[in-house]
Design brief:
three-stranded antiparallel sheet, 3 strands
Length: 153
């Protein structure tokens, strides 16, 4: 198993705060994509899973086409990545409930748990510090993120 229960059970960050952290991380990755060559600093699987986590928190449906766009890869490469993520049981494809011509993609319970554990490890601490920082200004600048987040790029 990939997850250590002590990581997911010992940290008390609420779902709303996890959504804020995921959005902050997504913004940071978008900035990095503008500053660094995309072919060097690319991790489309991470971008896909991050987008699916945010969509799940917002109860929003993501279709395969949107996920391909998020990945920044060609359709063929992105579909192979989706296949591998599904084989690893991190995401699941099903018919879109609103349009059966489209395929909806969601994180599995395992994928959601992995994202929660990753966010907890990238942003250690409690949710009150996030709320206080948001009340006193904006999000932390990218350079102020926990040093372990640098290894994602």
């Amino acid at each position: 198993m990939y997850l250590d229960d002590s990581v997911t059970n010992s940290v008390s960050i609420g779902d709303g705060s996890l959504l804020d952290l995921a959005r902050q991380l997504q913004r940071m990755r978008a900035k990095a994509a503008k500053l660094f060559p995309r072919d060097v600093f690319r991790d489309s699987a991470w971008d896909m899973v991050l987008e699916l986590f945010i969509a799940g928190q917002q109860q929003r449906v993501v279709c395969v086409k949107e996920l391909i766009f998020v990945s920044g890869e060609t359709s063929t490469s992105a579909l192979r990545r989706i296949d591998r993520l599904e084989a690893a049981e991190l995401l699941h494809r099903s018919h879109d409930p609103d349009d059966h011509r489209r395929m909806a993609v969601t994180l599995t319970d395992k994928g959601d748990a992995a994202m929660r554990a990753m966010l907890h490890s990238l942003f250690p601490g409690d949710s009150s510090s996030i709320t206080e920082k948001r009340a006193h200004g904006a999000d932390r600048p990218a350079h102020a993120l926990h040093s372990s987040s640098a290894s994602l790029f």
